[in-house]
Amino acid sequence: NHGDTNSISPEIWDGISPTAGLDGYEVNGHSVNQSYGGENLASEKGPMKRYPDQVEEKESNSVYQSQNISAFGAVVDRRTDGKVYTVREKENPPIQCDIYSGKWVRDDSYPLYPAGECSYMSGAFDCKKNGRPDSGYTQWRWQPRDCNLPRLNATDMLEKLRGKRLMFIGDSINRNQWESLLCILNTVIPENRKKLGSKGVRTIFLAKDYNCTVELFWAPFLVEQGSVNVGNKSKEILQLDAIEKHGTDWKDVDILVFNSGHWWTHGNKAAT
């Protein structure tokens, strides 16, 4: 985070093509391609999986470490093993709570946005549009054993993002989080006060009244990809020491969220 900014530079929109929504788009790791064409991906429906009402608690006994960082007006306390131990508002005293020790619980006040009605949700990720008949899966939230996590408030989130850029960088896990966040923020933004655009691996959502952007940069390996000639064949490689090309798009972003996962062992990549 490089500090508060008073305005979002219009230069971030250079070459960005406006789009009405993400429904029908698939990211393949190199570009954003329209692919679904309205096809119902749930043409082969099997029996619905039923989930238990509760998941067993995970026990944890760790010693506190007096290290705090500020994030969105909250304080994050860490344990001696480096894991986050508790999140609290700045003005409140710390609560001894391991946020990773808890269970998933049903909450009738959820979901935070109507399933199947968000234009920012990709077709492949929209369970309702793909034929799932029930809605109970949208009413789960994580409940730590010894404390409560604050409910995400869309208006409060936008206020804390005012004048800032938030960018998710990584693979489909981060894309899921990005799309879900857009759907939540969308519930409090008038239709003519938002803007969405994309170019290649970048997609930008702008909340005009808050002068903030929530962006996605698709980079499944985080580092750059290239190729070398081996004999008469071209072999794909990962350049583990190279992020300069990607990094030019990360400059001046206030908050960067990185994620990378299964791509590292996907297909032939495991053997390269």
Automatic annotation (TrEMBL):
<dbReference type="Pfam" id="PF14416">
    <property type="entry name" value="PMR5N"/>
</dbReference>
<keyword id="KW-0735">Signal-anchor</keyword>
<keyword id="KW-0812">Transmembrane</keyword>
<feature type="domain" description="Trichome birefringence-like C-terminal">
    <location>
        <begin position="149"/>
        <end position="268"/>
    </location>
</feature>
<dbReference type="GO" id="GO:0016301">
    <property type="term" value="F:kinase activity"/>
</dbReference>
<dbReference type="InterPro" id="IPR026057">
    <property type="entry name" value="TBL_C"/>
</dbReference>
<keyword id="KW-0675">Receptor</keyword>
<dbReference type="GO" id="GO:0016020">
    <property type="term" value="C:membrane"/>
</dbReference>
<keyword id="KW-1133">Transmembrane helix</keyword>
<comment type="similarity">
    <text>Belongs to the PC-esterase family. TBL subfamily.</text>
</comment>
<keyword id="KW-0472">Membrane</keyword>
<dbReference type="GO" id="GO:0005794">
    <property type="term" value="C:Golgi apparatus"/>
</dbReference>
<dbReference type="InterPro" id="IPR025846">
    <property type="entry name" value="TBL_N"/>
</dbReference>
<keyword id="KW-0808">Transferase</keyword>
<dbReference type="InterPro" id="IPR029962">
    <property type="entry name" value="TBL"/>
</dbReference>
<feature type="region of interest" description="Disordered">
    <location>
        <begin position="24"/>
        <end position="50"/>
    </location>
</feature>
<dbReference type="GO" id="GO:0016413">
    <property type="term" value="F:O-acetyltransferase activity"/>
</dbReference>
<keyword id="KW-0418">Kinase</keyword>
<dbReference type="Pfam" id="PF13839">
    <property type="entry name" value="PC-Esterase"/>
</dbReference>
<feature type="domain" description="Trichome birefringence-like N-terminal">
    <location>
        <begin position="96"/>
        <end position="148"/>
    </location>
</feature>
<protein>
    <submittedName>
        <fullName>LRR receptor-like protein kinase</fullName>
    </submittedName>
</protein>
